[in-house]
Amino acid sequence: MRPLLHPASTTPALKDVALLISRVALGVVLLAHGLQKLNEFTLEGTTAAFGQMGVPAAGVAAVVVTVVEIIGGAALVLGLLTPVVALINVITLTGALVIVHAENGIFVQDNGFELVLALAAGLLVVAALGAGRFSVDALIRRPAPATVSG
Fold first, then answer.
1. Residue ranges covered by each domain of the chain
2. I need a labelling partner for 61 at 20 to 30 A (CA). Which of 1, 97, 101, 126 fits?
3. What separation in angstroms does the CA of 25 have from each of 74, 76, 79, 147?
């Protein structure tokens, strides 16, 4: 019964593959949204939209959110500084949920919170578990080879 309820306990690589797929998927979505704010909507358009939605300091928020999504999304794809960039994005998504989406219900077609909630939940898991073995973080953490002194 244990393998059924916790499959990674019998196949450790499964955890690393799941983290890789999750972090790449989350990173791609964040990167796409950040690039959309920058290139399609423009920072001016994003600022105006944030202002209409009641986001405080809309100009600053537009720049911060755009940069966090682009840099954080790319870092997640690479698995670089994963817990840090995941948590920073959770903070911005929580702000979006509270300030903009919560009052609209769950469904995204009504400007609801389902997307920001799903992204934040996934990012919390990645932040808690780290990037996994298939990441730049794992390369950075790798211990230096032992030297033989003689």
1. 13-132
2. 126
3. 11, 9, 12, 39
